């Protein structure tokens, strides 16, 4: 989830989050690799943003803009899985005290929305709710990956830090709303087509109802999203207040 923002935005798992307690970060080689990764991801989401603007100007309408950025969206959103491997398996424990479960949930929910809902259920691709979470994800990720890049380089502009810990207040609910509305719009088509469902009897003696699964996914947002949101609010108070105190002491 970026949430959403999306998020379509995720829990604050920045490589260079400003924390009062110093933690050992990645070495020089790993840092260089992470900088390259974040620069590429920032550029990718900028491509998506430019694609949306160009399509809107060409069409004169915000409807069905998904098709103009479908391929780069799939590529760069799926690329977040590599980020989660780098963070959770390699660097996260020594860099920032973040919830691995919440972080993984948000990343997987976005990849799930991209492939298992929007890609798989063609009928929802024209829904305005898709544009809602795509715009929220795009703004969030441009800011987030820029934040990571400058943090790794130890030259983080205050404006980017402020945007990272402020714009989520609007972007997170915007992304989550788009995600939930898109899943809801997909439900009747999933039920009618039996998409990804497995019925009994079969040799594995196993059944799976994708329609019910999507409903459970929607319900899971109820306990998870508030945790993500309030985690970011807590981080905002900690990081921005720490910055203000540092400025006053100079």
From TrEMBL:
Residues making up the signal peptide according to the UniProt record: none
Membrane topology term: Multi-pass membrane protein
PANTHER family per UniProt: VERY-LONG-CHAIN (3R)-3-HYDROXYACYL-COA DEHYDRATASE, VERY-LONG-CHAIN (3R)-3-HYDROXYACYL-COA DEHYDRATASE 2
Enzyme category, top tier: lyase
InterPro entries: Tyr_Pase-like_PTPLA
Keyword match tRNA-binding: no
Region ranges (Disordered): 1-24
Catalytic activity line of the entry: (3R)-hydroxyhexadecanoyl-CoA = (2E)-hexadecenoyl-CoA + H2O; a very-long-chain (3R)-3-hydroxyacyl-CoA = a very-long-chain (2E)-enoyl-CoA + H2O
UniProt-listed Enzyme Commission number(s): 4.2.1.134
GO molecular function, one term: very-long-chain (3R)-3-hydroxyacyl-CoA dehydratase activity
Residues spanning the membrane: 32-57, 95-118, 130-153, 165-190, 210-230
Gene: Hacd2
GO biological process: fatty acid elongation; sphingolipid biosynthetic process; very long-chain fatty acid biosynthetic process
Pfam family, one: PTPLA
Identification of the protein by name: Very-long-chain (3R)-3-hydroxyacyl-CoA dehydratase
Keyword field: Endoplasmic reticulum, Fatty acid biosynthesis, Fatty acid metabolism, Lipid biosynthesis, Lipid metabolism, Lyase, Membrane, Transmembrane, Transmembrane helix
GO cellular component: endoplasmic reticulum membrane
Family according to the record: Belongs to the very long-chain fatty acids dehydratase HACD family.
């Amino acid at each position: 989830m970026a949430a959403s923002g999306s998020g379509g935005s995720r829990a604050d798992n920045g490589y260079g989050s400003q924390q009062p307690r110093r933690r050992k970060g990645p070495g020089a080689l790993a840092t260089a690799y992470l900088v390259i990764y974040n620069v590429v991801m920032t550029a990718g989401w900028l491509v998506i943003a430019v694609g949306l603007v160009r399509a809107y100007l060409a069409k004169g309408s915000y409807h069905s803009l998904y098709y103009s950025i479908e391929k780069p969206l799939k590529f760069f959103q799926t690329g977040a899985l590599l980020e989660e491997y780098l963070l959770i398996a390699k660097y996260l424990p020594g860099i920032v005290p973040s919830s691995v479960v919440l972080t993984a949930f948000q990343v997987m929910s976005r990849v799930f929305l991209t492939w298992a809902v929007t890609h798989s259920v063609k009928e929802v691709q024209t829904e305005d709710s898709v544009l809602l979470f795509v715009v929220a994800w795009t703004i969030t990720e441009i800011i987030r990956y820029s934040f990571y890049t400058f943090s790794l380089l130890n030259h983080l502009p205050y404006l980017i830090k402020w945007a990272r810990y402020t714009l989520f207040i609007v972007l997170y609910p915007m992304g989550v709303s788009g995600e939930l509305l898109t899943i809801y719009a997909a439900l009747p088509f999933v039920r009618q087509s039996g998409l990804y469902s497995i019925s009994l009897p079969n040799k594995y003696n196993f059944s799976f109802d994708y329609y019910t699964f999507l409903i459970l996914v929607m319900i899971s947002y109820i306990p998870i999203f508030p945790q993500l949101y309030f985690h970011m609010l807590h981080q905002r108070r900690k990081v921005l207040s720490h910055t203000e105190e540092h400025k006053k002491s100079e």
